[in-house]
Every structure is written in C-alpha cells, then in structure tokens.
Design a protein that fits this description.
The complex is a heterodimer of chains A (149) and B (77). Chain A is an alpha+beta fold and 149 residues long. Helices cover 33% and strands 35% of the residues of chain A. The chains are: A alpha+beta (149), B alpha+beta (77).
Chain lengths: 149, 77
C-alpha cells in the first residue's frame, strides 16, 4: 500500500507504476482489474477563477484517518494493492490533489472500493481548502457535496 | 494540561491556533466553553480528542489534545 501526504506538486502516474511493480508477479497476475481516480485542482472561470488553493490539514489525525480508510477498504473488498495519497500545502490549477487506486481480481470490487476511498477521504479526513480567487478575494470552502458511499 | 487546537476558518476567527488549559476532568463541550470564554458553538462544529472524532459529551482528561474545526473539505471535484 502507498498511503500518505505530499507537500509538493507530484505526478500520479509514477506512483501508480510503483504500486503495480511492488505487487510481485503472482499478485499482479491475480488482478483482473484496477481502478484509478486522480483529482486535480480546478481553476473555474471569470472573476471567481481560482488561482491558488491552500490545503490545510491536522497533522497526525490526517495520516491516521487515511490509514484507517485504507484498512477499512481492504477489509470490505478483496483488494490486492491500494494507493491513497493526498496533497497538502499550496496547490495551483492542474496540480494533483488526490490519487486513489485499487487492484483486485474483478471490476465490481475496484469500482466500489475506489469510489469508497474518494468519498471517505472527502467526508472523514481533516482537510480544509481555502480558495484564492483572481479578483483578490479568498474564502474557505464551506462544505463538501453529500457522500455517496 | 489539556491542549486545545483550532483549524482553518475557526482558527482565523478566534485568532489563535492552540492554547493550554489547566487539567480537570471535563468533557469536550466544557473545553470549548473554557477555551473560547463561552462563545456559542458554530453550526456544524466538529471536534476530536487525541486525533479521533469525538462527541461534545466525550470525556477529556489531563494530557489530552482536543481540537475544534469546521466541516472537512478534502479531495477534489
């Protein structure tokens, strides 16, 4: 498993390749399916265009929550490999904010497990986003969309 | 001592990120009242004790870390 935080901009694809490679040949051969979610920072449009995002978190509680979400996911579905990495600090449009990925024997498990990872992070992990807009204003993002877990 | 921490918009509103309170057997709600001089609890306020989400009635003891924060907004899209 690769679970954790990144304080600087990162590319999702080398992380995913590393996760696949560290599985071992037999494990990898048992995986008929993998599912990947990459969430990136969106700029929006017009005067409310977001030029920068501050991702605050609660050090210690965040890592613990991500680890528990990963463990819960592996207990609920037959997952052979998992990636759950979230960005913290200052992010720019287009940069990766979250990577969630799972490998398993069949597609039903990976679709459900990957969706669960993303929704659980959104609603359980102590992250807070502050948007800095093109018009010079800044605001904390008030709330997430309802969970679909 | 009980360590109290505030995050995000709440930290900015209160103008501080941490403070320490003398230890007494108490609960999360009382920690909020002592740490904020009785400020009303914001709607949708969340709390944790020792890095785990906690109800406002949860017990707090000497050495505990209590945090208060707004709803979480991680992930993307």
């Amino acid at each position: 498993m690769i679970v954790g935080l990144r304080e600087a901009a990162f590319e999702p694809w080398p992380l995913l390749a590393e996760a696949a490679q560290t599985m071992g040949a037999d494990e990898r051969a048992g995986c008929g399916a993998s599912d990947v979610f990459v969430g990136t920072m969106r700029a929006g449009t017009g005067s409310t265009r977001i030029v920068r995002l501050q991702l605050e978190h609660y050090p210690g509680m965040t890592e613990r929550t991500l680890a528990r979400i990963a463990a819960d996911t592996c207990a609920r579905w037959p997952i052979r490999q998992l990636v759950l990495v979230h960005r913290v600090g200052e992010a720019l449009p287009g940069e990766t904010l979250i990577v969630a990925a799972v490998w398993s024997a069949h597609r039903d498990a990976v679709f459900a497990a990957c969706r669960h990872l993303v929704e659980a992070v959104k609603h359980q992990a102590p992250f807070w986003k502050r948007e800095f807009r093109a018009d010079g204003t800044a605001a904390w993002v008030a709330a997430n969309t309802p969970a679909r877990m | 001592m009980i360590t109290v921490r505030f995050f995000a918009g709440l930290r900015e509103q209160l103008g501080r990120d941490t403070l320490e309170l003398p230890a007494t057997d108490t609960c999360v709600r009382e920690v909020w009242e002592r740490a904020t001089d009785g400020m009303p609890m914001p709607t949708h306020l969340l709390a944790s004790v020792n890095l785990e989400y906690a109800d406002f009635d949860a017990p707090v003891a000497d050495g505990d870390e209590v945090a208060f924060f707004p709803p979480v907004t991680g992930g993307a899209a």
